[in-house]
Each structure stands twice: as C-alpha cells, then as structure tokens.
Fold:
Amino acid sequence: MTKLSKRLAALPSYPMAEIPAIKRRLLAQGVDVIDLGAGDADFAPPAVAVDTLARAVRDPAMSRYPFQLGLPVFREAAAAYLRRRFGARFDPFSELHPLIGSKEGIAHLAMALLDAGDVAIVPEPGYAVYEGGTVLAGGEPYRYPLTPGAGFLLEMSDLPADVVRRTKLVYLNYPNNPTAAVAPRDYLARTVEFCRRHGIVIAYDNPYCEITFDGYVAPSIFEIPGAREVAVEFHSLSKTFCMTGWRLAWAVARPELIAALGRVKNYVDTGAFLAVQAAGAAVLPQAEELAREYVARFQERRDALLPVLRAQGFEPETPGATMYVWVPLPDGVASAAFARRALEDAGVVTLPGSGFGAGGEGFFRLALTVDTPRLVEAAERLGKVLSTV
Ligand SMILES: Cc1ncc(COP(=O)(O)O)c(C=O)c1O
Structure:
C-alpha cells in the first residue's frame, strides 16, 4: 500500500465532491435536475473575450509558454482597471501577477508564507481553498466562525493572544462566498490596523467586487490606508465575466509579496494560456460596463427568487452582493441531510452550509446560475422538501 502524505490525510474532504456523480445518476434516470450548486452562471462570456480569443489562438506566438511574465498588455490592463476603479496605483510588473484562476494563487500564497507551526486564520463558512492551501503548505488552519449576529465579519480582535502570536496569514473575502455579506469600511480599517500591528498578511479574496446590488459598490482593500503594507488582493475574471473555465485572474500586492508568490509559481506552473490573457486584456478596459449588464441579470434573478423562497417558508436575507443566497434552515435540520433530500427527492442541487466548514451548519447556499423560471421552479421544489423535514 502506498503511504500518502500526512498533508493529504489532513485535508478535509472537498465539499460535496460526490454531487457530480449523484447528479449524473439522476440525469441518467431521466430526472430534471436544476443545478444551483457551483458559482458558475449560465451567461455567455463577453463577445469581446470570445472574439479576441478566437483571433489570438491563430497566432502561433500565443501558443508558446507564457512563463510568469505572461502577456504584458494583460498586466497593464489589470493595473489600469485597479487605478480607474479603486484609485489604487500598482506597477503592472513588480506589483501584479497573472494567475491561472485565483484559486491557484490563493493556494500557492500559503506556500510562500507558512512554515510548520504557523497559523492561518480561515473563515468558516468559507471557500475551501483557504483551509486546503494552508494544510498543503504545512501550516495550521485556525477556523473562525462567521455568524449572522456579527454580520459574518471575521473580527481579528476576538482571536486568543497565543493564536495571534503564531498567525502569519488571514483570509478575508467580502463580498463573501457563501454568506453574501459585505464588509463596512470601518471594519476593513480596524482589520488592516490589527494586521499591521501583528505582522499578519491579509489575503483579500475579491472575486465578487463587481457583483453588487442596489447601488452598493464594493471596495478594494487597497482603498484602506496602510493596506499596502499587509495585503495581497486577488481578482478574477471568472465570476464577473462568466469566464470560470478560462482560468484567468491576478494577484496584486507590494513587490516583496508578489515576488514571493511568483517564486512558488515558477516551480509549479508556467502561466495562464497567452491567448486567454489577450482576451482578458480586451475585457478589462470595459470591465465596469460589461459587469453592469451581467449584474442587472443577476439582480433580476435574485428579485424573482427571493419572494418565492419566502412564500415557501424559507427566511433568507436579501443578498447585497455576489451570486449567492444563503438560506437558514429551521433549528435542528442538518444541512447535509437537507441538501441530500433536495437532490435525491426534488432534483435540486444546493450546497449544504456544512460543506463550507462546520461554521456553515444551519444554512444552505443557492447560486443564481440558471434562468428565472428554473430558479422559481427550484424554490417551489425546495419548499416541498422543507415541508417534510
Ligand atoms: C471566494 C472565492 N474565491 C475564489 C474563487 C475562485 O475563483 P477562480 O475561478 O478565479 O479560481 C471562488 C470560486 O468559487 C470563490 O468563491
């Protein structure tokens, strides 16, 4: 028997890894499955992305290794977007790094920062890669429960002093997956201040910054004074532009942190496909306009789904951002059992809160990834499940 690494054994099982297999079985049985699981909307990517990619793949130069430099115009377009959108000025070459999706960069950052015994603060519920990246890097995750009463905010001053002493990294993600919470500026300011005082790096995971509703505009952590000293921010084309499969994102931070991430990546990958970077460079100059169109459609879906969910007996808050609705379950109903019933009995894929860590128990997540009539149908089917739990 091959003895696998302790790191692998320490990884929690990937949330709902069994869903695709169950879904396939149900589809094969002729069940009409509505999939509101992954945050992967059904909208087409922007025409400018598709057209640029189609042209770029015909250029043989685009088929060469990207290396870590990648396509300079992509770096420049990302830096120009940050400047225009957030007033944040970064050098596209020493302070910004293209990624093969932000998941990749988030996981690899931990390898650049953590040694055995170092702690990373992991919000729970939260994106699985925070804990997974920490464990694979040999660090120690400290799980912080995000609760509705605290606005789902990760409050650094709550941490025990002995944990703070060993903490090198904290993962923050607002607008938040899965809770859809957003971070007030004064919260960000006190968190940056705390991390500066204690020498803790903030991995600010910001893939939903353009998916905001009702006039809310999400900030960059770099709008907060002092953040440059401590933060690495991750941006992604995946969610805003419905380009999840294209795998394109970037990290931005001061040169020392970007160089550290680049050093790890040099040994594990050779960069995102150049033709995809060319497409990204064509999208970013129009980012805000393109995002507005997608967001209007997400908002329409949100506004159609919520009244039906409520009529069915659920009590979700109205999300102010993201493509998710975080729905509380009645006391005593286990989220994994509910999600399983939703799938097996009603043909609706949801994600149970417990799949985002134990702190997510008592909730399930719906993604606004299918059109309105299907969302309404899903909510009605879920109501039937609720009435029998
Ligand atoms: C909070 C969060 N961060 C990062 C990602 C990863 O995005 P990407 O496609 O850029 O790897 C996701 C995707 O679900 C996410 O929800």
